TrEMBL record:
Alphabetical list of InterPro entries matching this protein: Papain-like_cys_pep_sf, Transglutaminase-like
Designated name of the protein: Transglutaminase family protein
PANTHER family the record matches: BLR5614 PROTEIN-RELATED (PTHR33490), CONSERVED INTEGRAL MEMBRANE PROTEIN (PTHR33490:SF3)
Coiled-coil stretches noted in the UniProt entry, renumbered to this chain: none
Signal peptide start and end residues: none
Domain Transglutaminase-like: 30-133
Species, as recorded: Streptomyces tanashiensis
Top-level taxon of the source organism: Bacteria
UniProt xrefs under Pfam families: Transglut_core
Organism placement in taxonomy: Bacteria, Bacillati, Actinomycetota, Actinomycetes, Kitasatosporales
């Protein structure tokens, strides 16, 4: 699938924003710690991926009731759903000058019911010509997402026959529908009931 930059200017995918607040002190501290141990851009991107995937529990898996949506809050509170974890990973990448975009899948249950939007990150490493999607959702039995610039290793592969979709658009900030759902939810159970079914 060819990924499409919503903004043709690559600088948009390096900028700090309301959610991808990579100029925040906490994001910078985490970034600097990771970069000290992994100075190469590829090694850093892989280490930041593992850090967000493995040390920030997905709140639906952990039962955490808090809702986070800013990168600094995700890293500070160590919780978030896929959208929030993706924002944190994008911020850590941008903090080191690596272009990062937010992108999405539409997923369903096995019978095609209960559609929901799932959040991913696309990264463009130095020397690479194409964006590579990554899934920092967090692994559990049946899910084995891994960092890869070649063949994708996402949590889920879409099933078009069930109406599932890989959205090709790359966003500099969370999609407005996603961000609105996160901001409006007083807690995760409320968010569970209002997760967007489409973009």
């Amino acid at each position: 699938m060819e990924l499409i930059q919503q903004n043709p200017d690559i600088e948009a995918y390096l900028a700090a924003g309301e959610a991808v607040d990579h100029e925040h002190r906490l994001v910078r501290e985490v970034s600097e710690r990771l970069a000290d141990a992994h100075p190469d851009a590829y090694a850093y991107a892989e280490a930041a991926f593992a850090f967000v995937r493995d040390t920030v529990p997905h709140s639906m898996d952990s039962g955490d009731l808090r809702v986070t949506w800013r990168a600094s809050d995700v890293l500070g509170q160590r919780t978030g759903i896929c959208y929030a974890k993706s924002v944190a990973y994008a911020a850590l990448l941008r903090a080191r000058g690596i272009p990062a975009a937010l992108c999405y899948q539409r997923l369903t249950e096995d019978d095609g019911s209960d559609p929901v939007i799932h959040g991913l990150v696309a990264v463009l490493l130095p020397g690479e010509r194409v964006w590579a999607r990554q899934d920092v959702r967090g692994n559990k039995p049946g899910i084995d997402a891994r960092f890869s610039l070649g063949e994708e290793h996402l949590a889920w592969t879409v099933r078009p026959e069930l109406g599932e979709v890989d959205h090709p658009e790359l966003y500099a900030e969370p999609h407005p529908v996603v961000l609105a759902a996160l901001k409006a939810a007083p807690d995760r159970p409320s968010l569970d009931r209002t997760l967007p079914a489409g973009l």
